[in-house]
Design brief:
Elements: E1 2-6, H1 10-20, E2 33-39, E3 42-47, H2 49-55, E4 69-73, H3 77-89, E5 94-100, E6 106-111, E7 117-121, H4 126-129
Parallel strand pairs: 1-3, 4-7
Antiparallel strand pairs: 2-3, 5-6, 6-7
Length: 130
């Protein structure tokens, strides 16, 4: 199980996901295809145009979608705020500043280097949810 993202520049994509805290192998930024194991049998794959056009003649090109949000859990409510600040301070576009969401998590969204929305949520805090 996993997700596959098209990227314009692998180096820019790997820099973002390293900052998020994923383990990115040394030299990944120089590859046209990278797969990261994010745990629990889930993989996150990234490919440049070079690889995608090898198998998809009708590829429509990079098209970031805000209807699809890649989600990462973080350890605490404060970690959501810290992640948002760290990424936006590094120049990434904040899409949704941290909020106390109706379902009980602290939540935010930041656009990755290719404009894909990436969300970060804390564990559910029952008193906030109820």
């Amino acid at each position: 199980m996993g997700a596959h993202l098209a990227v314009a520049k692998m180096a820019a994509a790997m820099a973002f996901y390293r900052r998020v805290g994923l383990t990115v192998p040394v030299g990944a930024e120089d590859q046209d295809h990278v797969e990261l194991d994010v745990g629990g049998g889930v993989h996150l794959a990234f490919s440049t145009r070079t690889v995608i056009e090898m198998y998809d003649n009708g590829w429509r090109g990079l098209s970031p979608a805000t209807a699809t949000v890649l989600q990462f859990g973080v350890v605490s409510r404060a970690a959501v705020d810290e992640m948002y600040h760290s990424l936006t301070s590094a120049g990434y576009q904040g899409h949704l500043a941290p909020v106390d969401a109706f379902w009980g998590s602290r939540y935010c969204e930041v656009d990755d280097a290719d404009g894909n929305a990436v969300g970060f949520h804390s564990p559910v805090d029952r008193p906030i949810r109820d």
